Amino acid sequence: MSLTGNLKTVSFPDILQLLSTGKKTGVLQISTSTRQKEIAFRSGNIIHASSINSSEDLLGNLLLKLGKISKTDLERAIVMHKQTGRQLGTTLVDMNLFEKEEVIECLRIQIEEIVYNLFSWEEGEFKFIENAEPKKIAFPVELSTMNVIMEGTRRIDEWVEIQKVLPPDDVLLRLAPITKTKRDEITLSMDEFKLLPLINGERTIPDLIETSPIGEFVTYRAIYKLIITGLVQAAGRATIRTESVENEDEVILSILFTLYNNCFYRIRSLIEEIVGEANPMYNKFLSSFRNGFLMFFPGYDPGADTSPTFDKFYMEIMKIPAPVRLHTVMTTLENMLSHQLEYVYCFLGEGVYRQAVGKVRREVSEPLALRRELVKRYQIDENLLGSMRKADRVVRMVRGAS
Q: How many angstroms separate the CA atoms of 49 and 332, rounded?
């Protein structure tokens, strides 16, 4: 079955309807210039969904927002997940942090949020690949596509009314003063009850969406109902919060340190696996990237005791003049990563090069989730993708010259 087009001409619910009634098995890909999502079907029902280049739909981030895991445990799980190559859900069960059934329930919520988000897309290229299989699914989840269509359509209808009531994004919300009412006049849903403690006069609607444990649309709906029942009201405009340059620099540098070291570790491990650590080419590779602050990125296992500490790296970076500090670090790391990928291609061929690129791309997906507002502002993800684009240009040039 060939199914391609744009959401401008064929709506997302219509696509789901077609795949459901046809009991199709395969993968539906939908993408814009900045986003890409995939939904997997089996016999017309939805069994998996993922965001290829978005941190918003990551399982770890969802667990964190739901309050089901601490940042420390999540970070430990992510490190183990990367070291073993096993999926994060499986790793969480292996570490006895969750029961299998709890992970399955969180995965179901994750899939629903990804799919329901697509109901609001008005454009985007789509392609259905029949009989294609999604990436390995550790825990099976199956949703009735027809039920999803009905819920998604209902949410769109509700959204029209919700938008009429919600204040602008820069308006702070607070609880309204207590008034005398009959006990049975106002009944709160569980979603509204969960949201109330977050409304403290210091958060806007985007802030609440960011911190809410109940999903984006459900949060909007809960805010809407709390406003129309008079329990929540505006508390003035939000002022721009400023962080000290030093503190923000430290956060950004910490993200860069972790992210790039993980990428270099994956490349180093791949080369070592193929050629062996006794091979002169391997030792030449290790000695090729050792100058300035790059000495803090040897590509060691990030969980090993021998890894350089962030504190020493941070002290070295702070010696760089502040106006050019971050630009210098990001440009140097971008060049180093692209050079390493080029090295892999030149000495080990295109097959291994593609493996290395795939490992780097997987590293990009998760570490950026917890501070995505800074990641976007400083374009850290674009920096990493720029490294791969540079390497690809060199590969194409070499291939064309040969």
A: 36
The SS3 call for residue 204 is coil
Residue 245 confidence (pLDDT): 42
- For CA atoms 389, 31, 38, 157, give the dihedral sign: positive
Ranked by mean pLDDT, the top range of 5-19, 25-39, 328-342 is 5-19
Q: What is the mean pLDDT of residues 378-395?
A: 79
CATH fold of the domain at 166-237: Outer Surface Protein A; domain 3 (3.90.930)
Question: Smallest Cα–Cα separation from 110: which of 152, 43, 48?
Answer: 48
Contact 114, 57 (CB under 8 A): yes
Beta strand residue intervals within 148-279, DSSP E: 171-175, 232-237
The HSE-up count of residue 322 (CA atoms within 13 Å, CB side) is 7
Mean pLDDT rounded to a whole number for the chain = 81
Residues 6 or more apart whose CB falls under 8 angstroms from that of 20 comprise: 44, 45, 145, 146, 149
In this structure, the number of other CB atoms found within 10 A of the CB of residue 161 comes to 11
Instruction: Calculate what percentage of the chain has a pLDDT beyond 90.
Output: 18
C-beta neighbour count of 279 within 10 angstroms? 13
Question: Domain boundaries in the chain?
Answer: 2-54+98-157, 166-237, 245-401
- Residue range 191-224, pLDDT digits in tens: 888 898 899 998 999 889 888 877 788 899 999 9
**Token pair belonging to 292:** 């300035």
CA–CA separation, 235 and 238 (whole Å): 9
- Between CA 35 and CA 52 the distance in angstroms is 8
Find out whether 147 and 17 touch, Cβ atoms under 8 Å. no
- Nearest Cα to Cα of residue 290 among 246, 318, 332: 332
User: 45 and 142 in contact (C-beta within 8 Å)?
Assistant: yes
Q: What is the pLDDT of residues 266-279, one digit of tens each?
A: 888 888 888 887 77
Q: Which pair of tokens denotes residue 265?
A: 């570790």
- pTM comes to 0.53
Assign 42 to helix, strand or coil. Answer: strand
